[in-house]
Every structure is written in C-alpha cells, then in structure tokens.
C-alpha cells in the first residue's frame, strides 16, 4: 500500500511539474549529438516551448524519433529555425516540413541564407508526392501554401512566434551561422549553434538564464587531453569550426549567463569533472551537460530523460571539481525505479564505466554504503 501511495504521489508531482513548466520558457534537448552517428545521442535539435507555442531549432538525425518520445506532434509546431545548413543540423527538415504541410498548421520557417531556396527545392522535388497525400483529404498544394512563411534572416530584426520573442545574430563558423535568443518576460534562453569565439554571442546572450552552447573541447571519459588544446591560439592560420573550452567559458562569462549548457557532443560519455575544471578557469556559474530529452525550464528545474527532476544548483555541486559524489543527488539523476539503489542499466557517466569496481558485493546494484566505502 505504501509503495502504491508513493507511486501516486510521484505521478501527481510529475503532472504538476509539467503543468508548471508550461507557464515558463523551456528548452528540451531533442538531440545532443553531432555528425558522428551515436546510438545514445541524436543529431542537434532543441525544442523551445512556452504555453502553446513550440519552436524547433535544427533538425538533425533522430529528431523525429525523439519528438515522438517527447510526445511532440509535428503538426503542432509553430516554428522551424536553422542555426546553419550543415547536414547534421537540417537532414530531417524535409520530412518534418512535409508532415507540417499535411497537418495544416501555420508555421514560420527561418534561418540563414539558403533557407528559402531549400524550402522551394523541397516543394519542387516532392510536389507530386505532397499533392498525392493531400488529395486523400480533398486538398491540393495550393490549399496549404499559405500556411507557412519562409524567410532568410538577414537584418537582425527581432520577430515573434506566438508570445516568444526571437532575436538572432551572426556567429563565426565555417558557413553563415546564426545564434538565437528566445525571450518571454524576464525569462531567456540562447542557442549558440556551431561556432568559434564570436564577440556577437555574449551581446546576444547577456544575462540569459541559459546559454546552450557548442561543446567543442569537451573531454571524453577515459581520454587524456592536454589543457593547452583548449587555449586560444591566435597564431594558427587553420580555419576552426568549433570553440574550445577556453572560448566557450570566456563567452559565457562575458555574457554573465546564469547557466551554461554544453551540447553537440561527438562521444557518448563526458568526463564532466575534467571538463568543468577547465571551464572554471573563466566561468563560475552552473555548468550542465546536455543529453537527449533533457528538459531545461526557466523556473530553475531540470528533467533528465523526462524522468528525474533536478535543481541546477544540485547539478552544479555534482560538477564541482574535487567534490565527493553525493549519493542522494546520484539517486535523483539515475534511480529510475526509486528503489534506493542504482543498477548497471540505470548508471550513467563515470559511475557506469566503473560500475564493476564499485559494486563491492557483485549483486548488480550500487548502494550508498558501497559508494561511501569507496570514498573513505
């Protein structure tokens, strides 16, 4: 009976939390990966929501699958935005756009140059297919063409999608790339896109609640990285595509953003302690590490994989260099079935890598006692 009541309370708490999040500006990391295929990380994509407004930024490989896991219907999207037109950021745009046309929703499509021509090309290539599918509901392509607005963003003029104000700026990358800022009242979220050090980004992200940034320079678990790889090299003539940790932490500091969220990882597991140590050379606020379906809300709550709610301050404590892991915080992050211990399938990051060594009695679970013995 007690277990049943606990489950009911957890369900009600989740429902209340979800309802509360609707009334705050929220970012869901649909994909936290990169061009390198990874079964644990889909390609780059972030869903920005506020009340009934939903804006999808970038549409990398796996976006549709994770939108489905997130219970987000494509026909309910209000905006499709691009940071830039590298394939890993737009490869699922065509099916998403066509589904949007078939769904009949009003939508804004915007991004850097080539955005309008990409839309026109999709309509040209798939005209017969779209027409066939629309005919099943007695509609034609002409009936739905007025449902979307399609534009290249060139003038740095803010615009609105629903109640969300969208601002943008050019940042440095190998092709034309935009960073976006989303504002509702005093809540704000910024997405950097891929970039190298850009003076424009801290201006756009000034005092933002969350800065979701390219994770260039992040350290993979188990790797040995020389800190000099993350120093700004002003003498190199080779064109760079991504920031290093010195550059990302410097921009976050200059922006005075409350939380820095690293994403666009080329590997599954991050050495968060080593990465955070280097970031702390410039930036002292909360550092978070994105994972697919992590929900970030401007009421200072984090939901990882739609399951566990965490306060950013707790994550900051977890990521503080040289700190001893806190088992209560680890349970909040990993104990999906709420049994008070962590199984190998629930374990994440360095705990998962070292699971066998920490599971002292070899029963397939890590308990608080076993973790305490390890830290004594």
From TrEMBL:
Domain EF-hand: start-end pairs: 322-357
Ranges for the region named Disordered are: 335-376
Please provide, alphabetically and separated by semicolons, the GO molecular function terms listed in this UniProt record: 3'-tRNA processing endoribonuclease activity; calcium ion binding
Give UniProt keywords alphabetically. Answer: Hydrolase, Signal
Indicate, by first and last residue, each region the UniProt record lists as having compositional bias (Basic and acidic residues).
335-362
In the record, which residues are listed under signal peptide?
1-20
Q: Which domain of life is it from?
A: Bacteria
- Which PANTHER family does its entry note? ZINC PHOSPHODIESTERASE ELAC PROTEIN 1
- What is the protein's name according to its record? Ribonuclease BN, tRNA processing enzyme
Organism expressing this protein natively: Olleya namhaensis
High-level lineage: Bacteria, Pseudomonadati, Bacteroidota, Flavobacteriia, Flavobacteriales
């Amino acid at each position: 009976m007690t277990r049943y009541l606990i489950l009911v309370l957890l369900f009600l708490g989740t429902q209340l939390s979800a309802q509360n999040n609707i009334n705050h500006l929220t970012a869901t990391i649909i994909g936290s990966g990169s061009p390198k295929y990874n079964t644990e990380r889909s390609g780059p994509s972030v869903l920005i929501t506020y009340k009934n407004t939903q804006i999808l930024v970038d549409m990398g490989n796996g976006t549709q699958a994770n939108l489905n896991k997130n219970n987000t219907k494509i026909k309910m999207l209000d905006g499709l935005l691009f940071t830039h037109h590298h394939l890993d950021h737009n490869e699922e745009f065509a099916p998403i756009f066509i589904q949007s046309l078939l769904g009949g929703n009003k939508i804004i499509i915007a991004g850097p140059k080539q955005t309008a021509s990409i839309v026109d090309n999709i309509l040209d290539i798939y005209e017969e297919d779209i027409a066939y599918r629309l005919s099943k509901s007695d509609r034609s392509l002409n009936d739905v063409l007025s449902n979307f607005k399609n534009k290249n963003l060139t003038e740095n003029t803010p615009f609105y999608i629903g109640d969300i104000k969208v601002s943008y700026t050019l940042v440095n990358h190998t092709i034309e790339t935009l960073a976006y800022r989303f504002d509702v009242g005093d809540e704000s979220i910024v997405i950097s896109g891929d970039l190298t050090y850009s003076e424009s980004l801290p201006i756009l992200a000034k005092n933002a609640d969350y800065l979701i940034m390219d994770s260039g320079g992040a350290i993979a678990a188990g790797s040995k990285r020389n800190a000099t790889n993350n120093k700004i090299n002003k003498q190199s003539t080779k064109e760079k595509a991504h920031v290093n940790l010195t550059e990302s932490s410097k921009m976050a500091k200059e922006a005075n953003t409350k939380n820095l969220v690293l994403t666009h990882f080329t590997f599954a597991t991050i050495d968060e302690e080593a990465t955070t140590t280097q970031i702390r050379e410039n930036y002292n606020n909360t550092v978070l590490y994105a994972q697919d379906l992590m929900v970030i809300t401007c009421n200072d709550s984090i939901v990882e994989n739609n399951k566990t709610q965490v306060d950013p301050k707790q994550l900051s404590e977890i990521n503080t260099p040289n700190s001893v892991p806190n088992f209560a915080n680890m349970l909040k992050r990993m104990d999906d079935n709420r049994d008070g211990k962590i199984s190998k399938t629930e374990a994440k990051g360095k705990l998962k890598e070292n699971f066998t060594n920490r599971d002292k009695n070899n029963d397939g679970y890590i308990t608080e006692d076993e973790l305490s013995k390890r830290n004594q």
